[in-house]
Write a structure and sequence with these properties.
By secondary structure, the chain is of the alpha/beta class. It has a single domain, classed as Alpha-Beta Horseshoe (pyruvate-formate lyase- activating enzyme). It is 35% helix and 23% strand. The protein has 14 helices and 20 strands. The strands form five sheets. The protein has an eight-stranded mixed sheet, covered by helices on one side. A five-stranded mixed sheet has the order 3-2-4-9-7. Strands 17-19-18 form a three-stranded antiparallel sheet. Helix 11 runs parallel beside helix 14. The termini are far apart. Bound molecules: iron/sulfur cluster (SF4).
Length: 347
Amino acid sequence: MSSNSLETISCDYRTPFSHIYIEEEALQYPATARILEYFKNRDTVQIPIRQYQEVFHRKHQSFAAQKHSPSLILAVKHGNLIYPGAKVCQSFGNAHFYYTSFVMNCPFDCEYCYLQGMYSSAHIVIFVNLEDFFTETKKLLVQHPVYLCISYDTDLLALEPMTGFLTEYLAFAAELPELTTELRTKSACRLSRPDGFSAEAAKRFILAYTLSPDYVATNYEHRTAPLAARLKAAIAAHQNGFPIRLCFDPMLRFPGYEAVYTEFFTQVREALRDIPILDASVGVFRISDTYLKQMRKHRPDSAVLAYPFETVQQVCHYGSRSADMIQLAINCLADWIPEEKIFTIED
Ligand code: SF4
């Protein structure tokens, strides 16, 4: 075990930020000092601000332009810090399903990412008051066990060299047997157990790898790790004692998708056949119609977003074609992952 929970040598997904906006209130937090230290020898301009909203919610911003060169915003989050899991997200059978976001926006740039529809800015906001998130989590734990997803609206693992948040989170979660955490990632960064984080505690920290065919990763998941690197990272995470979840979600529909996905599932299975898989989720692309409208504006030439989706109750999806896609995945996984461990979201 190492005292630093990330083997940074295997992680190369850092975005160079030319500007860092810092809320006055954020200055007093150790995470702010740590992040600024990370940028010490870089050519980065620091700008004090009163509240992150004055930059993040500015009018007439271009999400697409900012995505090429995002700024960083260090802020303090007030109000709700933890939310009940959304219906469109998979609970994996957990009764008390919540999610939280220490960070808004992501260093990666997936063409189908819902964040493009959700936010008007692509700047990355890091909330430095982690302790307040921990306090809220503990309040929930007084009531019942908690299943908490911490990396939906970003990729915390990819940002770890800059934030150190996972190191802090693992220290917090180490002594909380009623807390189960899911960390979702498309990075190839490798997380190891910090000192004092027992094998028992590691069993409650699920590393969920979103896996896609290389065709999809290359064409639609810009800046993410290639498939082979994600698979190697998953094996390393298993060796470090973390349960491994595989997320085949969202599957995308494009000409020849059947052959691409069939070969992909074979590749994944060959690579991971010797490690236990906790469970898997399978889902097809789906998005709210208002988000899709925004996303198409940002990416007028995206083939993924141009698809003639069906819209039912304000949700756009592949309609009856979704079932074939899900079935393809289930067939390919059938004699590897038991059916009861495969969770599906169709639309
Ligand atoms: S990894 Fe997830 S959060 Fe990040 S850009 Fe891709 S879809 Fe969005």
